[in-house]
């Protein structure tokens, strides 16, 4: 049955697209945007591959990403699941219409029903994961931001143009930075002069620069990936704010510990893993953190020049360019405008990153 269903799925692609456009125009009273239609065709292709191979991991990854995107768009969970069910209902209708009678209609309904259930659960899983990650520290960080803003006499607001940097801490002490807007690449300077990225920070993220004594050097820096605004406090004002906001202080300490752990992991990566693995892992993490569905792929919504990617993994631009070309030739990623990348096969990128698939 599955082989027949997969063939019918591919046969009914055009009909499904027409139905989705018509539904968008009648139910939502707006012309269907090309990107939305292509997103649903991407779903369609993932379903067909899953049915053909009986490997549903790519489809589940696609659906979890869709759930995360709908959470980021501000939809509630019920609406996210409803939209998912509506899309799979159209799949069912299209299949029934192209069925030439070889497959009993009840078999189509039952099998698509099973797939619908898997997709809906994965969408809900992605949605809940996004909400949990976003909302858990949100209230504490908002209180931290308010406390920092109240100390305008001791706090500094800095506007960073894209490409501008927050330099290392050259004097002893601590400095707390709160990202009010934009995106920052948090990185460490390496002894060979290269850099390696610890994480990408967005609005409401915080990071701490710390230098124990004048003879040591803090190598933690940040680069604005977009135009960004950062609120900064240090010295006695930092101690006062942390004392007033113990929950936020725990959040800051947790993030600081996380940065140290990430540094250790990245050092181990540099020592033990090839440039290829480091690149695959970085692309996968960026796609999971900043990906949004676009034209049947996961668009990494941050500017990524080849040099910036090289800086992220402690490599050089020539090597990164060569590896990206190889990934493009294999249909795993593709270049987009404005120095962005899109992942067309998240399942294969994940397999490369984990070593399940070799180069």
TrEMBL record:
<dbReference type="GO" id="GO:0003677">
    <property type="term" value="F:DNA binding"/>
</dbReference>
<dbReference type="InterPro" id="IPR000595">
    <property type="entry name" value="cNMP-bd_dom"/>
</dbReference>
<dbReference type="InterPro" id="IPR012318">
    <property type="entry name" value="HTH_CRP"/>
</dbReference>
<keyword id="KW-0805">Transcription regulation</keyword>
<dbReference type="GO" id="GO:0003700">
    <property type="term" value="F:DNA-binding transcription factor activity"/>
</dbReference>
<keyword id="KW-0238">DNA-binding</keyword>
<feature type="domain" description="HTH crp-type">
    <location>
        <begin position="273"/>
        <end position="347"/>
    </location>
</feature>
<protein>
    <recommendedName>
        <fullName>HTH crp-type domain-containing protein</fullName>
    </recommendedName>
</protein>
<dbReference type="InterPro" id="IPR018490">
    <property type="entry name" value="cNMP-bd_dom_sf"/>
</dbReference>
<dbReference type="InterPro" id="IPR018335">
    <property type="entry name" value="Tscrpt_reg_HTH_Crp-type_CS"/>
</dbReference>
<dbReference type="InterPro" id="IPR036388">
    <property type="entry name" value="WH-like_DNA-bd_sf"/>
</dbReference>
<dbReference type="InterPro" id="IPR036390">
    <property type="entry name" value="WH_DNA-bd_sf"/>
</dbReference>
<keyword id="KW-0804">Transcription</keyword>
<dbReference type="Pfam" id="PF13545">
    <property type="entry name" value="HTH_Crp_2"/>
</dbReference>
<dbReference type="InterPro" id="IPR014710">
    <property type="entry name" value="RmlC-like_jellyroll"/>
</dbReference>
